[in-house]
Amino acid sequence: MADARRISEAKEHIAAAEKSLKTSFFKWKPDFGSAAHEYEQAAVCFKNAKQPLEAKRAYINAAGAHRNNDALFHAAKQYEQAAFLMRDQKDWGEVMGLFDKAASLYSEHGTPDTAAICLEKAAKMMETVNPRMSLEFFQKACDVVELEDRPRQIVDYLGKSARILVRIQDYDEASKVLSKERDLRHDLGDIDATNRTVSALVLVHLKRGDYVAADKMCGIAMGSGYAESDVASALACLLDAYDKQDEDTFHQMLNLPLFRYMDNDYVKLARSLRLPGGSRPKQKAVAPMGEMGPVGGAEGGEELVDEDNDEEFDLK
């Protein structure tokens, strides 16, 4: 009964909106402002009546009215509302199209920060559903903030993109994105973050089986506090063990806190590494190098596990 009343109320708002758009001998221009308001009210009524498709149409009509009224920011908001409705319906193609329209209108309105946030919302929403689509939206967000010269936002989006690429095992593209991230972080003078990115990039190159690229990356990273860091020492030992095909040392190095406390995607990547033609033996204890602590963010903390026998490495 309540839903029927809400639907009836929504139809009244739509009728009022359509009336506002009509012209006559004494009314030469449509009243887009009033129409937009009525469509918004109709959308809320349809939403409360659990009629998502009708609510979406009303939000889109409201967006059109706002756009014709040169209220681009408000038009973008209505597209976002429609996108969230379609998310609940799992209509992902529609969701992405609506977010794209919203972001374009935010940019056109002159609010690129809001456009970037909108694109980031879309990217995060698609991370598990469609990682490739998520990457597209992170790239669009990068393009928006790059025009505004926001390097810190750019490296944030690059970092998120790199983790998705590692997750879907596109290591070639991940290495390119991480290289860009590393260069930008270096230019920003963020030594710790640069070292974390170098560590991730070395792991990716080793997963690709490209020892030369991994070694070259460490060579490029020398300077700006990197050479004296525990990170440089650990990576040098890791690469030396890889080059000499020393399995024991190689896996002991991967068991250091440097790699165990990276973001989870890199922890899993480190856990999956093998020497060419080698296997993954159960590990013995290894003493930490100096005062080296967690590196790579607070999201990690996952311990390395031998995937062949599901036993945890002995870290005592």
Automatic annotation (TrEMBL):
GO terms for biological process: intracellular protein transport; vesicle-mediated transport. Keywords: ER-Golgi transport, Golgi apparatus, Membrane, Protein transport, Transport. It comes from the Eukaryota. Residues 300-316 have a biased composition (Acidic residues). One of its GO terms (cellular component) is Golgi apparatus. It is a peripheral membrane protein. The keyword DNA-binding does not apply. Interacts with RAB11FIP5. Interacts with VTI1A. Belongs to the SNAP family. This is Gamma-soluble NSF attachment protein.
